[in-house]
Design a protein that fits this description.
Elements: H1 10-15, H2 31-38, E1 54-55, H3 66-78, E2 84-86, H4 92-108, E3 114-116, E4 133-134, E5 140-141, E6 143-146, E7 149-151, H5 158-177, E8 184-187, H6 200-204, H7 208-214, H8 219-245, E9 250-253, E10 262-263, E11 279-281, E12 284-288, H9 293-296, E13 304-305, H10 320-338, E14 346-349, H11 377-388, E15 394-397, H12 404-418, H13 422-427, E16 429-430, E17 441-448, E18 451-458, E19 466-470, E20 473-477, E21 484-488
Parallel strand pairs: 1-15, 2-3, 3-8, 8-9, 13-14, 14-15
Antiparallel strand pairs: 4-5, 6-7, 10-12, 11-12, 16-17, 17-18, 18-21, 19-20
Helix pairs in contact: 3-4, 5-8, 10-11, 11-12
């Protein structure tokens, strides 16, 4: 299912025309896609059997004629980038008018058909009273502590399954009728469905339906019950229909991945409430997390490695870059260590600090909270390399429109340079998931037979060799700043 790059037939090359629009010239596709093309060159090394790079701006090209669309798909593919089309339930015909031509040509050109199904999953909590909590008098109410989303009773969502599934199935059937595949489908389904955080637990103690189902269970039991429902919703409405229609599809969702039982980050809509379980490190409270991935039916993992602004005050490292690097590597290593080798890891990544309110929750003692300093470009590039060397198969960049250019300019060179080590990405095994507790030397690598692809990053200026044990053998790793090296085992 993972496609190799291959030269296009000469007739298609001729249809591509003389070149792409120059910077400043009007392009037939959205500005974000043009920015991708402007700031990424063709790959020097073939992608081989590895997954393409996914970029938030490289989605939904609009209505294009055949020759122009071939040109676009070809130019993106020569950069190793997959074009994504979105499905919208309230604009099914309009979204299919643009998505289907893309899929037809992706199939014709031997490229992966990539779909964003996010909108198809919103919303289980649709604001109807049938999904609300019920207090002791039978009055419906919602939990409003998740921002704009009104969260209702997790045990009153059964009636939402059939209509949600039906609208997704209708779109799937269109692709099946045309014998079109869906090779990769993701969703960014976050603030909807059962979630145990914020004031959800408190709301459940007022809800007669919740109390009846929970039967006095503590928070841990509440979490397990909600995550089981959440996994079932994703499996029945989304993963199973996709896999039934497209058995080889990669299907997954933002932030759902195997792990060690803890989550080391908070999303923008989440907050810690005193009394809930957590493991402390510095000012960070790592939350126990249910093993939900296994029950979703997903076929790829999607950890989230972002520099959330509150992370800055979780740790006291004087080496500020290491505050970001440490948490990002912790998240990525957690996913890499616990995800089966046959399950791809597609990591959501982002460079710019995600401002979630430093003076608010999770920032440690207010008197010690300080303004986050942006992670350096050096630290971000190094972090990306270490993600790849700890199991990440490819990246999915999320960013705002204003951030497009800088985000692309930082991410793409790492992805492009990494392709020269194709066999390691396809068959290599991570040598370590250790995350140093203090700034120092960080080593990551992939072993392939007796060869090891290694990246060493130093946060304290150490220039001497550092030893690491690989397959029972002590190996001295020399300092090669900014370089990835191959070491041969005895």
């Amino acid at each position: 299912m993972r496609m190799k790059w291959k030269p296009l037939p000469i007739v298609l090359m001729l249809m591509m025309g003389a070149g792409m629009p120059c910077r400043g010239e009007a392009s037939p596709w959205p500005q974000g896609i043009q920015q991708v093309l402007d700031h990424t060159p063709w790959l020097t090394f073939s992608r081989g059997n590895t997954l393409p790079l996914y970029l938030w701006p490289a989605r939904n090209p609009g209505t294009l004629d055949r020759a122009v669309l071939i040109k676009l798909l070809t130019e993106l593919d020569r950069r190793g980038i997959g074009l994504v089309s979105s499905w919208f339930p309230n604009q099914v015909e309009a979204s299919l008018e643009t998505a289907l031509p893309v899929a037809r040509l992706q199939k014709e050109l031997g490229l992966m058909v990539n779909i964003d199904a996010t909108s198809m999953l919103y919303s289980f909590f649709d604001g109807s009273e049938e999904t609300a909590h019920l207090d002791a008098t039978g009055k419906p109410f919602f939990d409003d502590t998740f921002g704009s989303a009104n969260m209702g009773c997790p045990f009153r969502l059964e009636q939402r399954i059939a209509p949600m599934k039906a609208r997704l199935q209708a779109v799937i059937d269109v692709y099946k009728k045309e014998a079109l595949p869906v090779d990769f489908v993701f969703a960014d389904w976050e603030v909807d469905g059962p979630i145990e955080w914020n004031e959800s637990w408190k709301a459940s103690q007022r809800c007669t339906v919740c109390l009846e189902h929970l039967k006095g269970a503590p928070f841990e039991g509440y979490q397990q019950a909600l995550r089981a429902i959440r996994s079932r919703l994703q499996r029945v409405v989304y993963a199973e229909p996709m896999r039934a229609a497209f058995p080889k599809t990669l299907v997954g969702n933002y932030a759902v991945y195997p792990h060690d039982g803890y989550r080391y980050w908070y999303d923008y809509f989440e907050k810690y409430v005193e009394g809930q379980p957590a493991r402390m490190e510095g000012h960070a409270r790592y939350r126990p997390w249910a093993h939900e991935f296994e029950d979703t039916g997903y076929t790829f993992a999607m950890p989230v490695v972002y520099p959330w602004s509150w992370t800055w005050n979780w740790y006291d490292f004087e080496q500020g870059d290491y505050r970001w690097f440490y948490n990002g590597l912790l998240v990525a290593s957690n996913a890499g260590k616990h995800t089966p080798a046959e399950t791809p890891i597609i990591s959501f990544v982002h460079y710019h600090t995600v401002d979630v309110g430093l003076s608010e929750r999770l920032a440690g003692p207010p008197e010690k909270a300080g303004k986050a300093r942006q992670m350096s470009e050096f630290a971000y590039r190094e972090l990306l390399w270490h993600l790849l060397l700890r199991g990440t198969d490819t990246f999915f960049l999320w960013c705002t429109e204003e951030e497009n250019v800088k985000e692309i300019e930082l991410l793409f060179p790492v992805y492009a340079a990494s392709r020269q080590f194709g066999p390691f990405w396809e068959k290599g095994t991570p040598i370590t998931f250790e995350v140093p507790k203090e700034p120092g030397t960080v080593i990551s690598g992939l072993r392939l037979d007796r060869s090891v692809l290694i990246r060493r990053t130093d946060f304290t200026g150490n220039a001497g060799p550092v030893s690491i044990v690989i397959e029972g053998q002590e190996v001295a790793v020399p300092a090669h700043p900014g370089e990835t090296q191959i070491i041969t085992l005895k």
